[in-house]
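FORM 7B: Structural annotation worksheet

SECTION A. Query
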Amino acid sequence: MTIIKKYFPEISDIQTNKFSILGELYADWNAKINVISRKDIDNLYERHILHSLAIAEFIRFTAETKVMDVGTGGGFPGIPLAIMFPEVHFHLIDSIGKKIKVAQAIADAAGLKNVTVRQCRIEEEKATFDFIVNRAVMPLPDLARLVRKNISRRQINALPNGLICLKGGDVRKETTQFGRNVIITDLSDYFEEEFFETKKIIYLPL
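SECTION B. Predicted structure
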């Protein structure tokens, strides 16, 4: 939890409490339903929660923004972002029922009124959102093609609506076709821990 305060010292006591209980909630659920690798659960705050919050370093969403988290798994990056931005609505989807069950239970236990969840494939979701976020769900061209229908035409943020992805390694192959439209940011610009040295945010306006 201290790693969250290290980079986001401005969070309120309410937000601090919500982030604090995530550790216990995920450990408890992970013992029943394996949504995070066993070796990673000990690094939950660095490798999952702080990693998710890299999006909060990249963009500060305006109140009333609508965000969809595609392939959320157990709730990443959606749940940490929902704590960080209580005035923003997050819609979490995943095709795997047991993962959505965990995301719903943790959102409920953390008292997150700004989160909805749905078990479905992205092709089935027809609602529109200002931004689509995810962590390494599929290659960028495939994801962009599938979510283009879900991007709202209204613009209320400093950045144009689009896709924000957390990825690792060499992303040039999947971003080349977008040319200068795509923005790639190294997470080592935000966080000093070794884990983030190869991690990136990809932003693609749609």
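SECTION C. Observations
The helical segments are 2-7, 13-32, 44-58, 78-84, 97-109, 140-147, 172-175. The mean pLDDT is 95.

SECTION D. Sign-off
Analyst initials: ____
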